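W.,

You were right to be curious about this one. When I first looked at the sequence I had no strong expectations either way, so I just let the prediction run and decided to look at it fresh. Below is the sequence, 365 residues in total, followed by the output.
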Amino acid sequence: MTVRNGQGQQGVGRLRPGGSAVPLSEAYDTALLDLDGVVYAGGEAVPHAVEALGVARAGGMHLAYVTNNALRTPDAVAEHLTELGVPAEAADVITSAQAVARLIADDVPPGSRVLVIGGEGLRVALRERGLVPVDSAEDEPVAVVQGYGGPEMPWGRFAEASYAVARGLPWYASNTDLTIPGARGIGPGNGAAVEVVRIATGGRVEPRVAGKPLPPMHRETVLRTGARRPLVVGDRLDTDIEGAFNGGVDSLLVFTGVTDAAQLLRAVPEHRPTYVAADLRGLLVGQPEVVAEEDGSFVCGGWRASVNAPSGGELVLEGPAEAAAGAAADPMDAVRALCGAAWSAADAVGGGVPDAGKVLARLGL
């Protein structure tokens, strides 16, 4: 389906990526951008991010930065973005710390003490909601909250959370991302820390989680941005893309973070993005339509993808014809066509996920 007015196919599991006749920065009024793995990684800007966001902003698109990382305050994030060449104000930044602080404030009286296992971003968000951060289970907290505390988080902080949860205190988590991208690779995220406390307390209690892909984060984002035609931009299927699916809004997946093409082709319906691009330059262009042919194949940009058996089997990729004549071919078009073939096969009655190993090796992905 081609998007012409910023209103795409929303809230349903799609069988192929969408198309847009105009640049995405014109089709949508607001980009809700994840940060880690999308705008920066390990503190450094992702290639092409600064330039692409500058062009999108100059064209009138509002840029908001929505992150599950609760470590830093919106002021600190905005300052970092500005240093990287992406001008931002604190009001442009929405964090899972803010979402979980609102969730807790809805449940406990003003002025309540909350045991904090995390960084300054979480403490500031709690104070913003009239709550009092404390450091010990002996400080008479009425709840305990976990947020990403960075790679130097002392092990004793997890023990403190375990003591509080074992005593029956309500348990909250800013997010449950198991990993987080950094300059040296993929490291453990807040979800891994939550698992530590879960194991220590016998797995009998589950935390209330605020971050993507769950509704509290979407609620926080809508309240703070006022977006009318938002586009979620992220690198994670299980947070960014699922969060967009749950919120009934369109999404753009970029391959600059944790998700690779093989994972995208295996995506379950709620993890399938509206659009796919190599990086944030995808905001500045239209998106080619993926056409479903009568023979069951899918075509995009001259590439044709199909499955060699109706239920499961192996993905087959042909073309494009112009590439044989020496013209450059966009591998993203091949990925888009492959998504159509793989997702349709997986959703067919009795279908399975086709093997993508050979075609992705051919593309170097």
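Here's what jumped out at me. The longest strand covers residues 62-67. And, maybe more interesting for your project: Confidence is low (pLDDT under 50) at residues 1-11, 322-327.

Coffee later to discuss?

I.
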